[in-house]
Design brief:
By secondary structure, the protein is of the alpha+beta class. It has six helices and eleven strands. It is elongated and about 60 Å long.
Length: 212
């Protein structure tokens, strides 16, 4: 079965640079981001892992655990970590899953035969505390990811889970949000959005971010 938004993230048990990971147990009651790498000792991945290590405090603020995957084994990963720390001037502070048997890559459909039938694409899965897949982003192997965008997606998901809003294009923390169309009762709207709102169209109602 293909991984789909709203579906339960496939569970697995796999070795990592921080020991055996039982994925659902490892997530616990937190949010999680699983992101894949084509292989070890590749240039773009080296920069990405360094960026995520530096951003770990930002993920922790949002109660997000991060975990990477590459199809090579733990011994190879540990050698690669030395290069990451040296070139990116940071300490690796999260696990890298080993996947030499391609088990996890297969579960999450990370290998696209049209791109390369042995290497994973740059996949990102945002998973909530209920183990549901809430966002998926896939990049080609040649394009490094924008982790500021991934943090923005997490911010949107966490905000919209708690308030009846959606976030408009290019939205960032602190900016106006959209009141969801399903909310129509004027009294309820007044109660939920005491700062008021501006109706640009009957279906497009902007309101200040409710939790700011």
């Amino acid at each position: 079965m293909a991984v789909q938004l709203g579906g339960v993230a496939p569970d697995f048990t796999q070795e990592s640079t921080e020991g055996t990971i039982r994925f659902h147990d490892w997530i616990g009651n937190h949010w999680a981001i699983l992101f894949s790498h084509p292989k070890d000792f590749t240039p773009v991945c080296t920069t990405e892992l360094g960026i995520v290590a530096k951003l770990k405090p930002e993920f922790e603020k949002r109660d997000v655990k991060v975990i990477a995957l590459s199809v090579d084994d733990v011994k190879s990963h540990k050698g690669w970590i030395g290069d990451i720390e040296e070139t990116q001037h940071t300490k690796m502070n999260f696990p890298i899953l080993a996947d030499p048997d391609r088990k996890v890559a297969g579960l999450y459909d990370m290998i696209h035969p049209q791109a390369n039938d042995t290497l994973t694409v740059r996949s990102v899965f945002v998973i909530d505390p209920n183990k549901k897949v809430r966002a998926m982003i896939t990049y080609p192997a040649s394009t490094g990811r924008n982790f500021d965008e991934i943090l923005r997606v997490v911010d949107s998901l966490q905000l919209t889970d708690k308030h009846q809003v959606a976030t408009p294009g290019n939205w960032k923390q602190g900016e106006d949000c959209v009141i969801v169309p399903a909310l129509q009762d004027p009294e309820e709207i007044k109660k939920k959005f005491p700062k008021g709102y501006k109706a640009l169209k009957p279906y497009l109602r902007m309101t200040p971010q409710p939790n700011k």
